[in-house]
Amino acid sequence: MNHQGAKAETRPVYSHAELDRLLNPKTIAIVGASEREGSFGNRLMKNLSDFTGTVYLVNGRYEEIDGRKCYASVSALPESPDCVITATAREVVEDVVRECVEAKAGGVVIFASGYAETGKPENILLQSRLTDIVAGTQTRIVGPNCLGLFNYGSGAWMSFSPRGEINPVNDHAIGIVSQSGAMGTALAQNMAHGVSISHTLTSGNSCDVDVADLVSFLAEEPSCKAIACIFEGMAEPERLLEAARKAWAADKPLLVYKMATGDRGAQAAMSHTGSLAGSNEAYRAAFESVGIIQVASHEDLIETATFFAKVPSAPLAKGTALISTSGGAGIIGADKAEENGVWLPDLRPETEAFLATIIPDFGSPKNPCDLTAQALNDPESLKACSEAICSEPDIGVIVYSHPMSYDAATPRMAQIGSIAASKGRAFCTIWLNGWLEGPGAADVERNPQACLFRTMDRCFTAIRLWNERAALRELLDADAGPLDPPAASREAKASLSKVATKVVDEFAAKNILNAYGLPTVPEKVVNSASEAVAAAKEIGFPVTAKLLSADVPHKSEAGMVLLNLRTVDEVSAAYEDIVTRAGQMTPKPRIEGVVIQAMVPQGVELLIGGRTDPMFGPLIVFGFGGTMVEVLKDTVTALAPLSRTQARSMLGRLRAQRMLNGYRHLPPVDLDAFADAIAAASVFLADNSEEVAELDINPIIASQRGLFAVDGLIVKDTGN
């Protein structure tokens, strides 16, 4: 949502049917086919030598090439081609695209560069003309400046890139989508060690078909079980969210590695929470809202995507069992499991007792389980141990650490994987040894019952992500959704609209928020010492006094908050002190009065806030607050609005969540009340996103008396 003015309507993503001819072609035309070795046209001819469909050669300079008929133009072809690949100079591309539209071609792949990527206005115009040519037609464009498309099932290697090893497309194949051609083909080389890939789709400059469209296609593509996307950014990222919703509806995991994760969007924020919810956090929140699985690095992408392509939609149970021949490997695995919040449950006493009859004394029948080489080398012992562990009701994943690669060890992984699969459990092998392509590695990759990881951390991260995705689906399936704006919201919106300043003063902000259900503290605005004393008597001692000025949004940092005033004299003196010091500030702020507020008992300092993001709309931020909020940065960011159920679930992500349950002298936080407040604030943000730039309710004190917002800040969007 763009709060800087009206936003042009976003084009819906292309469907599978609209892209099927282009990406699953049966006929391909090479414009610029050539007999010259090394030319793009000649490379294409060789790369398509195994294509199961028909290839037409197009070049007016030849009647035939290598004994194959060559046509003078696309219009001269005997049928409308599904895909036309232009291995030509930029100067003739536009004419070729026009021909393709007239021939009703399914799509065009444009290798030529020198368009918008140069940043030159005249080249940007050239690219926009290509977009205009195909607008409203059935012909789509991939590119320009595109490395190509790869459909491994049909052998359609639609690129000048050198051919690599191609594996059969099996039931656990993944699809790759990349804006960068080089990164896409780099990921595709995982086929060299056994990974099954259905498509590698690169988008180049995306004058028509972009990353979101390619994800949308794979979401409905039967040959693809999971999608791995490497993503830089796009002008309309909500289109990627639309494609992700298709993948979620199809229960097809979509994994994204997001490059360019800087937070420049947070630099100009006026509020604490505005700075916390930067551009990277906005992407994280947006991705999570549609079930996108975000990985931390491009090295994680393929292994994790392959894992999701092989495992069921949800684990049979939440626990993981770690088995190995090395006690040290078990310790490392336990550490990584704990870091990722992966549960390693104790085995039942009867299971431990049974394992102890097989495992030598120098091993361990517990979880992590050290089978020792002695037990592993006996297939019957290994079978018995595996069946016992896989029968544990709390175990959904079996992880086997493989410390040394050698031929005799290879059958173990297939044996454990087969037993795990027969009992509905997932099975992972962690390749701990340095011989990355050693005996057995490719066998595990090709095995639909086994998932290969080359680091402990990557394996347990994948298991965590699997559990989180299953929990999110369960949560959303049972969730009633966000609340509707309350009846008082209309008056609150009108009050907000009447505020002429960019910053809404604290008193007005809290009145508006209270109308949406936020719990606030009894307080009064006063304009004299005598009024301050009268207000303190009415509210009840002790009280707090603070400056009321839209020009001083952070009063604590400015020294304009005086706490724990217990007598009439202290209140009177505090009023005079605040007004005097405010009058000495440079520049001098507008003084709208002094707020006399009930003193809230000591408790846990929390925060709720957010901002309206120019791409994704309203974001809600919540977690631990106070004056150290930007140092601690222990908060969660999500798209608004949130339901109470979603808010309550997300509180479990806070790093210091133990403090919510009562810590030392602090009382436990009423988590349901906090979730209600988060949901209410998120409804406020969503309901007023056109007018609100930032929101900061900090601190919210959770004490034994309840939950109270003691300060509040609303920054309006003035269009500046």
Topology:
Blueprint: H1 16-23, E1 27-31, H2 40-47, E2 54-58, E3 64-65, E4 68-71, E5 83-86, H3 90-102, E6 107-110, H4 121-134, E7 140-142, E8 148-151, E9 156-159, E10 174-178, H5 181-188, E11 197-202, H6 211-219, E12 226-231, H7 238-249, E13 254-258, H8 272-276, H9 279-289, E14 293-295, H10 298-310, E15 319-324, H11 327-339, H12 349-356, E16 369-370, H13 372-376, H14 379-390, E17 395-402, H15 410-422, E18 426-431, H16 441-446, E19 451-453, H17 456-478, H18 489-498, E20 503-504, H19 506-515, E21 523-526, H20 529-539, E22 543-548, E23 561-565, H21 568-583, E24 593-598, E25 604-613, E26 617-624, H22 629-632, E27 635-639, H23 644-650, H24 671-687, E28 692-703, E29 706-709, E30 713-716
Helix pairs in contact: 1-6, 3-4, 6-7, 10-17, 11-17, 14-15, 18-19, 20-21, 23-24
